[in-house]
Model the fold of this input.
Amino acid sequence: MMNACPEKVIRMMDDYLDGEISPSEEKELKDSLQNCSDCRKIYQELTKTIAYVQSASHVQAPPDFVQKTMAGLPKESQRVGVKRFMRHHPLMIAAALFVLLMSAAMMSSFSDDQQFAFTKQENLVVEGETVVVPAGQTVVGDITIRNGDLRVDGELEGDVTIVNGQYMASSGVINGEIEEIDQVFEWLWYTIKGTFQDAVSFFGGNDQSIDE
Amino acid sequence: MDALVNKRIKRVMKGDQDAFAEIVELYQHQLFQICYRMLGNRHEAEDIAQEAFTRAYVNIHTFDQNRKFSTWLYRIATNLCIDRIRKKKPDYHLDAEVRGTEGLNMYSKIANDEELPEEELMRMEVQERVQYEISRLPDKYRAAIVLKYIEELPLAEISEILDLPLGTVKTRIHRGREALRKQLSNL
Done:
């Protein structure tokens, strides 16, 4: 078909070049090549051709290939961008998250408390937004008042905390400490201090129970 | 290597482009080489290689991770090359003006069935001549020869890339080899 040589020899040549020839056929092929100069010529030309093709110098993609390819891609989703940022900057994310949560918690507890509120104790009376300890009465226990004032006409046995309000001096008696908090930052500080003290007393309590 | 690639592919599947940049980095030269040998010119090779990467990115969800990524990628590229070769032929015959266009060297403009004059062939460098003869092969032989002798891939992988039975791949390599032997016999 392609040349004068027997087709079987050509097939064996192909098998040999594909690396798929049996040892017995390989010997047969070698004998054929020795006996037939046409077969030998084809074989030599084929191996030469392969060598030429393989010697074709390896070309490289242009230096800006990656950049150009990436620029041509459809845009990625924003969600992934955020995820990657988080993976690359874990500490920053942790810090930002901390600040966010802390301020959110405190600001919300501050703004939630824009309403008048106070600790309920027996005998306390409310006049408008003023909490009153009536004359001749004794209130036992701590009182916290938010967005309201305190007037003590009778007797109070306990500490007083007033947020955004004031203690109005009067004839009454307070057996405890009075703390007035008027500003956002003081309120924040108060909350932090309180949380810290709670934590300390919690751990302190634990220690005690272990000691016992 | 495959584990490394698969890790990146998982990230790409979630839409992460940076992971894909690493994949492009990894395969750019091999893919460009295939396209260049198939098409015979750098300009078109770059175009098609980029297109192949873009398609891989867009269709990454269809990639079966139990298979080899390079096989899938090369398959996209060879299909695009074959499409381009088939589209290019009528263009060339119909529009003679394209001949002088910049960025395309004259050998790349030669259609498969058109031969250069003997003295022109003799003046060529060996490398140039080999590339020219490869680009004269019918596209189906060309893909098999490029994958076998330039990418040096195993026959089984070539059969997967070209989506052809092993026997057909062998036949194409044999015929391509024989055609090249005749074309290069005067070298």
Q: What stands out?
A: Chain B has one domain: 2-183. Chain B is about 70% helix and 0% strand. Residues 98 and 153 of chain B are 35 Å apart (CA to CA).
